[in-house]
What we know:
Strand order of the largest sheet: 1-7-6-2-3
Order of helices and strands: HEHHEHHEEHEHEHE
Number of strands: 7
Structural class: alpha/beta
Shape: globular
Number of domains: 1
Mean pLDDT: 87
Number of helices: 8
CATH topology: Rossmann fold
Oligomer: single chain
CATH architecture: 3-Layer(aba) Sandwich
Largest sheet: 5 strands, parallel
Distance between the termini: 39 Å
Low-confidence stretches: 1-7
Amino acid sequence: MGSPTTAVAICDACILTPRPWQNGRAALIYQGTSRKLVLGLKHSDRTDIAGPAGRWLAQACRDILTPETVVTPIPLHWFRQLRRKYNQACLLAHALAKHTNLTYMPYALRRPAPTRALEKAGFDERYKRLSAAIEINQRKKRALVGKNVLIVDDVMTSGATLHAATQACLNAGAAKVNVAVLARAEKNR
């Protein structure tokens, strides 16, 4: 008897705008209760959500992880992190790395300048604002050369943030980049 096949779902945005990452995974769809969880983690100091969310992410990513994978979060600009007190992507990436026994590299990427909030920005505006907003931390560059990298964030809307981070990793010499988000926003139907 043959083994079951797994269907790969590709969203319309990924077909129209090719992504530089190899694989992407989301643990949840950004709606209802999952939206409340993400917003609680992001804006309401509900850092206790990160542990279970890290397990969900680990489960969603199990087929794309290798023992050599390095896990790194999307960075916040230092001023935004100071205001928020923590980076929710760091909490998620750390929890995922812990559940999978992978190397956690929290400062591989950096955001050298603040970017305006993206909540109301359209697809093209998001890409424009983020095109050069994320770069490699030069102190960590050697550690990424030839590595498989998993970039972690809380929510994917357009993919612009993950695109910028993936390009930075690839430009630094990463062998392969995959992305994982706690929740994926769906387009309005």
